[in-house]
C-alpha cells in the first residue's frame, strides 16, 4: 500500500526577506538557535573566542559569547593581550577550563547514551528471538499454550503479587 507524503519535508529556501511577520518571527527563533549552536561548535573545535549579538525583529537582543562577554569585548577593545590584567586572565582561564570540563562530561554522557541505546537494541533482539519475532512475551500468549510448569509458575507469581497488593492496601488504609 503506497503512503503519500503529508509534508514537503526539508526544502532549500531562497535567501530573501520574509515579508509575512509571523513567518519572520518563527524563522528567527529557529535560525537563532542554529547560529548559536554553530558558534559554540566553532569555539570548541577551533579553540577561539567568539561573540555574537543578534537583534530580533521586535528589537530584543540575543547574545552568545565564549568564553565570557568580558573577555571577548576586552579583546576587541584592546587586541594586545599583554596589556590585559591578571584578574581578567584568571577569570578567562577558569571559564575556559570549566567549559572544557563540561564538554568532557557531555561527551561522556553522550557515549553512555549511545551504549544504552545499543543495549536496548540488543535486548529487543533477545525478546524477539525468545518470542519468535512476535514481540510479545509470555503475557501475550493464550493460557492454553502454557505447559503445567508454566501455569504453576504464573499462578505463584500472581499469588505473590496479590499478597503484596493486599499488604500495600492495608498499609495505606492505616
Identify the notable features of this structure and list them briefly.
about 170 residues; mainly alpha; SRF-like; 2 strands; about 60% helix; elongated
Please characterize this protein's 3D structure.
A two-stranded antiparallel sheet has the order 1-2. The chain has helices spanning 21-46, 69-77, 86-131, 148-173; strands spanning 50-55, 61-66. It is elongated. It is mostly helical and 174 residues long. Among the domains are: 18-66, SRF-like (3-Layer(aba) Sandwich); 83-138. Strand 1 and strand 2 (61-66) form a beta hairpin.
Strand order in space, largest sheet? 1-2
- How big a fraction of the residues is strand? 5-15%
Number of E strands: 2
| Assembly state (oligomeric) | single chain
Unreliable spans are none
Quick take:
By secondary structure, the chain is mainly α. It is built from 4 helices and 2 strands, in the order αββααα.
